[in-house]
Amino acid sequence: SAVISQKPSRDICQRGTSLTIQCQVDSQVTMMFWYRQQPGQSLTLIATANQGSEATYESGFVIDKFPISRPNLTFSTLTVSNMSPEDSSIYLCSVESNREDTQYFGPGTRLTVL
Amino acid sequence: AQSVTQPDIHITVSEGASLELRCNYSYGATPYLFWYVQSPGQGLQLLLKYFSGDTLVQGIKGFEAEFKRSQSSFNLRKPSVHWSDAAEYFCAVGGGGGYQKVTFGTGTKLQVIP
To answer: How far is the alpha carbon of B14 from chain A, nearest alpha carbon, in Å?
Structure first.
């Protein structure tokens, strides 16, 4: 398995601002994923981030709103731009273990937008 | 399209009682199946997974799950529940073989009463 950390663990932000969430993994991985978990809901995939290529976004999510960087095999960032209260969610980073066909999750970032 | 149904939104059991959480999936080929647990304020932890072979799989924390292809089910069980098992449980299905898009169920929230 992989050990994944996220920063910040939680934040309270004002409407119209942006927040960048960092995800760090303790080993090199090909696939990293960003999910959103709205209050009381299940997980929704935002995008898949491969090192050295543009992120692939799921239907309903766009790069202008959720820009993603993947500069190397152990790190990724997700920015939530021009935030509104509807963006209040837990944002989770996950990685796919190269040998296990299994996703492992970070602890999440709890975002509240006022 | 793949999908997961967890018919029970909320379950309450007494400590020491047995537990079964239901999961039904829809997938066009042989599925990769997962159960994750999310404690309050935490990320997702992998409990167990099924890819192939023995249809009864053992996981961490005393959990097991049984894959039944004829019923498209992957129910999670535990013979004796502990108060620390109170959490939300997510069933998920994916395709494996390198990049896999994982689809999550809506979750079952488990309450354990003394």
So the answer is: 23
